[in-house]
Design brief:
Mean pLDDT: 76
Number of domains: 4
Structural class: alpha+beta
Largest sheet: 5 strands, antiparallel
Low-confidence stretches: none
Number of strands: 11
């Protein structure tokens, strides 16, 4: 039965893809021979949107296939190191608005998860969804305490749907990589695996709640960013309850201007929030599209951002941060050799790569960027160029940097939509240089000592005992070493004597043989034969002498 369902699902996908003319993607591959078969089993000879570009047709097809495929398209739009620009640009337009599921189903999920009726927890529950996305939908409600909240509810049976679709995607990816070198180059199976991992995190709302709480903690009492409160008593794997926020959507630029918001300050603050999340906290919101960002315009000259939907977050370790900061600074100094060296030092590219050759490739990719005005230079596109160039030198994709690249593109696009004259470099450069100074300067050393000092003081009384124990262990190890050294010396002597015995035996045998030949050749004169025989016997006796090893 499961096989029949999978076959039916595969036919549905095939019919949709063929109807939108997407079988053309097979043309430059060995799989082109399958196009007639795909068309035959599509049972449809009508083509939709045949006058549109391939990227637009792919977007429309994924939208028709449903929530999981919309989410896949959104993820692919961030993989500009794999996907051609025209397709990535079109997929980036995918909206996460899908048909809502019924309010009765939403109520049932909430009550099952909370183990209580809605009336026992909420004084009011709005049955009309506030928003509906591919994984969940949101309803407004009011707690018995009078606090206004929103309830995020997973779609019913979403896990089963995801597993079904992913199972088929894995099979298709394996099949494609088996028969297509292009699919292997694009590492289709890796893309599906990354998608699987992303979805796995998104379908457990406790993970999103934990991310939200952590981001809120990082910006507690900050005038830059506000993150709504999570109500943990009412949060489960399929239900999350958070504070309801009020603000102006970041994409409504006309309304923001009408409210008197300082647009330059708003754009600059967005850049500062991004770099603070990345370099100060190593924890950044990786889904900062306009639908997830609002603005508190209470103080128009100091507008405060409001962030929601923390399902996808990125993290960086200290090495990643130093790598990025040094790369950005080296890029604007046009120090391409330093960029090449940083890739090798980070371990992402083999040490045997030719630095001059890699440097030349980076220069060819980056120099055209400097033909633009400084305010038009994109950090995000610089990273895309850099990663694409590095891949030619066998650099493996770093997932955390792919998320960062996606977020940076969002931030840049949003910032320039708010304030077209935004110079991201002017805002970012002082921050990056200060951060690097703080990492390697006296202040950083002082902070490290201050952090480690309590542990050092705790261990200080134990140091004499630890030294004594280690000295004893060292003495024992040295004794073992001396003993081992003597055994090795004895073994070498034994081998030497054994080698000498073998030589004596060979020489003795040779003299014995010569003695016999002399006797046969001169039977009347046995004296030479006897002398040679005695010498041979002496060597043979020597070879049998007991070997003594001291």
């Amino acid at each position: 039965m499961n096989t029949i369902r999978q076959l039916h699902h595969a036919l549905k996908i095939n019919r949709t893809l063929v109807r939108y003319g997407l079988d053309e993607f097979l043309t430059p591959t060995p799989l082109a021979v399958l196009r007639p078969v795909a068309k035959l089993f599509s049972f449809s000879f009508h083509k939709s949107a045949h006058d549109k570009s391939r990227g637009e047709r792919l977007r429309l097809a994924l939208t028709e296939l449903g929530p999981i495929y919309i989410k896949l398209g959104q993820m692919l739009s961030t993989r500009r190191d794999l996907v051609p620009p025209d397709i990535a640009d079109e997929l980036a337009r995918l909206q996460d608005q899908v048909e809502p599921f019924s309010s009765e189903e939403a109520k049932n999920v909430v009550e099952q998860q909370l183990g209580s009726t809605l009336d026992a927890v909420f004084s009011d529950f709005n049955t009309t969804p506030l928003a509906s996305a591919s994984i969940a939908q949101v309803h407004e409600a009011t707690l018995k305490t009078g606090e206004a909240v929103v309830i995020k509810v997973l779609r019913p049976k979403i896990r089963q749907k995801i597993r079904r679709d992913l199972s088929m995607m894995y099979e298709l990816a394996s099949w494609a990589e088996k028969y297509s070198s292009e699919a292997r180059r694009l590492r289709i199976k890796e893309v599906v695996k990354e998608y699987d991992s992303t979805l796995e995190r998104e379908i457990d709302l406790r993970i999103e709640a934990a991310n939200t709480s952590h981001l809120r903690h990082n910006f507690q009492d900050s005038e830059l960013l506000y993150v709504p409160k999570v109500y943990w008593d009412y949060t489960r794997s399929k239900v999350m309850v958070v504070e309801k926020i009020a603000g102006t959507p970041i994409g409504d630029v006309r309304r923001l201007k009408d409210e008197g918001v300082n647009m330059k300050e708003l754009a600059d603050r967005g850049v500062e929030i991004f770099f603070t999340q990345v370099f100060r906290d190593s924890f950044f919101h990786a889904d900062m599209h306009p639908g997830n960002i609002f603005v508190d315009t209470t103080n128009p000259d100091k507008p405060q951002y409001i962030a929601i939907d923390c399902g996808i977050m990125g993290t960086l370790d200290e090495d990643d941060k130093r790598y990025l900061a040094h790369n950005f600074l080296a890029f604007f100094d046009r120090d391409y050799k330093r960029i090449a060296e940083l890739h090798v030092e980070s371990g992402w590219i083999d040490e045997d790569v030719s630095i001059p050759e890699f440097e030349s490739a980076i220069r060819a990719a980056c120099e055209p960027i400097f033909g633009k005005a400084l305010a038009e230079i994109s950090f995000g596109h610089f990273l895309i160029q850099l990663f694409q160039t590095a891949r030619r030198f066998n650099m493996q994709v770093q997932p955390q940097l792919v998320l960062l690249q996606k977020t940076l593109l969002y931030v840049e696009g949003l910032g320039r939509q708010l304030y077209p004259e935004l110079d991201l470099w002017e805002t970012a450069q002082p921050y990056l240089r200060k951060w690097l100074r703080d990492q390697i300067g006296p202040k950083a050393i002082f902070e490290e000592v201050k952090t480690q000092l309590p542990d050092w003081l705790h261990k200080a009384p134990k140091i004499p005992g630890l030294l004594f124990d280690n000295v004893q262990k060292l003495g024992q190890e040295l004794e073992k070493f001396d003993s081992l050294k003597q055994e090795i010396t004895q073994l070498e002597q034994y081998k030497l004597r054994q080698s000498g015995a073998q030589k004596h035996a060979i020489i003795g045998s040779g003299f014995a043989l010569l003695s016999g030949l002399l006797y046969l050749g001169i039977p009347d004169d046995w004296v030479p034969s006897l002398i040679v025989g005695v010498v041979g016997l002496a060597f043979l006796v020597k070879s049998l002498w007991p070997i003594k090893v001291k």
